[in-house]
Amino acid sequence: MTTPSAEISHKLDRMREALDETSAAAIRLRGTDWFAWATAGASNSVLLAAETGVAEVFVTAQNAWILTDEIEAQRLIDEQLSADFQLQVNPWAEFAKREIFVQKTTGGGTILSDRPTAGEAALPTTLLHQKRILLPSEIDRYRQVGRLATEAMTEAMSQAQPTWTEYELAGAGAAAMWSRGLHPALTLVAGERRLPLYRHPLPTAATIGQMAMMVFCARKSGLYANLTRFICFGSLPDEQVKLHEKVREIEAVALNRSQPNATLNSVYGSIAQAYEQCGFPQAIREHHQGGTTGYLAREVVANPQINDALMAGMAIAWNPSLPGAKIEDTFIIQADGTLENLTFDPNWISVNVEGRDRPIPLELD
Questions:
Q1: Burial class for 339, CB neighbours closer than 10 Å (0-12, 13-18, 19+)
Q2: CA torsion sign, 219 to 15 to 299 to 57?
Q3: By the 8 A CB rule, do 25 and 19 touch?
């Protein structure tokens, strides 16, 4: 399955199986995540912060359409879509015509949707499962996204100066992502003062000082590469060195447990135990620990109640943290239980932790 058309055909088959399973008339996909999944990586985004986009996928047992308006149609044809879909275009000021087309096509039958509105039904769990297990062609695209994201991170962090503000570092990160065709879906930055205070540090006008953390959720082809890196000007203080060591130990527990058929809550329990053994029993309550990723920055966040099973082909991104220390990369679970690190950068300094190269704070002059 090496061509977009082959991948799209496979996914149309899965959607039509869902229609048979539920006796529904159509599937309607509005979200940026599901649109990218169904179209082999095309984008319906204009406003990057929005969960839904400017076009929809609409599939029946016989046909597959992209529903959009006259503003977007030609650009989508020229730059995003393959020939596997028909286009149904409504005037931008007459959205009701889209709804008339949908109702006429389905004859009042049930419509399944990722973002159901009144009268629609949610997608079946079988299709949710299909989305989270990535095909070889999707993993190939994901490798490119991961490589570009980590190149962008290394470029921006290597240029930083202690006099920069957090805004400036975040701006450098976003510029490095955009220059590689990545959507900067999330760029967090904390400098020396704010690092120990906040787990989700939106950048501010504060100067970064002697050390800084930057976090990316970088999106391309609908797929998210999630990674965290630290820099330090001069030598990292011994106390911080120990915190980063502890975080790497905790992450190793999570990665070792991320095997096919392991449940998310079992991995979460192992992380909680690792925090306790490292002397930080409350840390698991101070931030979520990550979970599965892919077409959402977090497909499913692990917690004690989530017993979803990990499977080969799923992407994971764990992010254990302590005050002033954190670690995160994006991995694919392989059939043999090994993990492929999609965001590994050989140009970033790393240490071996239980057989894996893991990033450590980069010391700059």
A1: middle
A2: positive
A3: yes
d(CA 213, CA 53): 31
Which tokens hold the place of 241?
Answer: 């060195």
| Cα–Cα distances in angstroms (integers) from residue 166 to residues 61, 89, 193, 277, in the given order | 51, 43, 11, 34
Could you give the CA distance from residue 346 to residue 108 in angstroms, rounded to a whole number? 56
The three-class DSSP label of residue 315 is strand
DSSP calls for 276-304 = HHTT-TTGGGSS--EEEESSSS-SEE--T
| Contact residues for 359 (Cβ-Cβ < 8 A; gap 6+) | 229, 327, 329, 345, 348, 349, 350
Distances (CA, A) of 112 to 59, 61, 103, 299: 10, 13, 13, 19
Domains and CATH numbers, the chain: 4-128 (3.40.350.10), 136-364 (3.90.230.10)
Q: Read off the pLDDT of residues 249-306 as tens digits, 9 standing for 90 and up.
A: 999 999 999 999 999 999 999 999 999 999 999 999 999 999 999 999 999 999 999 9
Which stretches within the chain are classed as H helix? 4-22, 32-38, 73-79, 96-106, 125-132, 136-159, 166-178, 238-257, 264-277
Does this model's pTM top 0.70? Answer: yes
Phi and psi at 159, nearest 5°, equal -90, -15
